[in-house]
Structures are given as structure tokens and as C-alpha cells.
Amino acid sequence: MKKFGVFDIVGPIMIGPSSSHTAGAARLAKIARIVAGKEIKSVEFYLHGSFAKTYKGHGTDRALVAGILGMDPWDERLRDSIKIAKDKNIGITFHEADLGDVHPNTVKFIIHKDDGTIIEVMGSSVGGGNIEITRVNGEEIEFTGAYPTLIINHIDIPGMISKVTALLYEGNINIAFMKVYRSKRGANATMVFETDSIVEENIVQKIKDIPYIGSVKVISPTEE
């Protein structure tokens, strides 16, 4: 179980009344934006539980849109984010939804890109502005966005993990957390590495060049 410090519970610097409903929502959406890429045409927000019941009163709607626009929770423009999105011709719709047995502050993003692709991200605001991403494009994963993160899709064959970790060692990258997800042996799998420092592009490229690697997504907590 993740341990939180006193400053996490008190909450982050932010615009809005609630660390869970405002700061956490903005962080969730910003990570969803990074996962999807910046060429966003429209976003559908499916709000679950407490998010669905109070999203207008607590400013969750504006925080989510702010994150999609790349804003941080303390950005003064957060209050006007919906208007800003409209001015940028980014379509925004909100839906109340039952997303199953998940945290009450959960949202699913359906992100439509300019090139026609659709990205799905789901995550929860777990308190004090902290978040957890739980699903990307239908695949169950888990990361917090607090660390530089690599999401690596690959074929589940022997040696894949050792090849990637050897390259991270070569780049002097310390692994804070690592998880591997797969549906069945020999099928598609996903590695998630949360690291103590940014993985440089040359190392990322070497990972992409490994046979049977499908894609590598780099997520930085400081990315704009």
C-alpha cells in the first residue's frame, strides 16, 4: 500500500476547493494528455462515483479540461479552461457513468486525435492531489505519474525484461518500481518502469530497436 506524507494529505498548491476533485483531476487529465499526445480534437470524460455527483460544484469539469490543455493544478487559467478549450476548437463532453468496482473518484478519458486515432485512459484521484492511472487502451496497468515512467508494449518472450533493464543500467537509470502485465503466455505484454530520473532519448531509441518491442511511451512528471 502506498504511504502518504503529511503534505500529501494536506494537499498541493492548487486552484479550486478540493485536492481530490480539482488538483487530482487536473493531474489525471494532464497525464492522459501526455499518453495521447498533443494533437487532440475532442475528449469525452466518463465520470464515476463522487466525480459524477459533484463535478460541477467542485470544479472537477474545469480541472479535467485544464489538464487536457496541459495546465497544472495551480494555473490561474484553470477557472476558464472550458472556454479556452472551446476557443481552441477542442470538443468537450461529460458523461456520468458506472465504471465498475473502482475508486469513487475515477474518470475514463476517450481522446480523439486529429489523425483519427482514439486513445482511452482511465485513472483515479486517490486523495491529497495524488493519482493512479489504471488502464490505457483497454490494458490494465498501474502508475502514479509521480516518477518518470516508461510504458513498453512487447511480445511476451524470454529475455525481454533483461534486455530493457540492461539498457537502463547502461544509461545509469535507477528503477524505482517495475511491473509487467500480460493476458497470457507468449501474447502481448506491457512493462511499466517508474524511474528516479529521466530516460534519455538515446536509451529510449535503443529500447525501441529491441526485436519484438511494439511501442515505448515516455511520461515525464514535468512535461508540458
Explain what the structure shows.
By secondary structure, the protein is α+β, with helices and mostly antiparallel strands. The protein has 2 domains: 10-137, 60s Ribosomal Protein L30, Chain: A, CATH 3.30.1330; 149-219, 2-Layer Sandwich (Alpha-Beta Plaits). It has 7 helices and 10 strands. The strands form 2 sheets. A 6-stranded mixed β-sheet has the order 2-1-3-4-5-6. It is globular. The two termini are 29 Å apart. Residues 1-17 have low confidence and may be disordered.
Provide a compact summary of the structure.
The chain is α+β, with helices and mostly antiparallel strands. It is built from seven helices and ten strands.
Distance between the termini: 29 Å
Number of domains: 2
Write down the secondary-structure element order. Answer: HHEHHHEEEEEEHEEHE
Helical/strand content category: alpha+beta
Q: Choose one word for the global shape.
A: globular
CATH-defined topology of the largest domain: 60s Ribosomal Protein L30, Chain: A
In round numbers, the mean pLDDT is: 87
Number of extended strands:
10
| Reported CATH architecture of the largest domain | 2-Layer Sandwich
